[in-house]
Amino acid sequence: MMTDKNSTEQTLYRLGLAAILVVAAVLFLVKWFQIPLGGPLFACPIYSLTGFFCPGCGGTRAFRLLFQGKIWQSVLCHPLVLYGLTLYLLFMGSHTLKIFTHGKIKGFAYRHIYIKIAVACLILNVLVKNLAWIFWRVNLVEWAAGL
After folding, report:
1. Label partner for 146 (CA 20 to 30 A): which of 68, 97, 103, 117?
2. Cα separation of 145 and 70, whole Å?
3. Which residue stretches of the chain have pLDDT < 50?
């Protein structure tokens, strides 16, 4: 009999596999149609309208910097990117090993605390970026990205 925890982890694993396919498809389309990943097409509407950073501001730059090996700058742009990618790789890697070893290796267990940490990180990220902008007129996303 399958427990709720196993069912949740199987669902998360399947969603993780689907995410790989979606990301691969998007990257293929971006490359095929030569879509630039910057500029007004991908500008944040909240930032454009209000001048304040939304919870997702800096995420695209953080991914780009992370894949360029600039880990610290990526974390400064958006810390949730490295946190989420680390959890994703640990979860997917360990569960893939669990499948191939027929359960001899335990998978990285899902815990609700990971979501709570992510939400806290997201809130702190928005507060720090907006407070730095309000009080010192420092755009931390552009500063971290070296713009």
Report:
1. 117
2. 9
3. 1
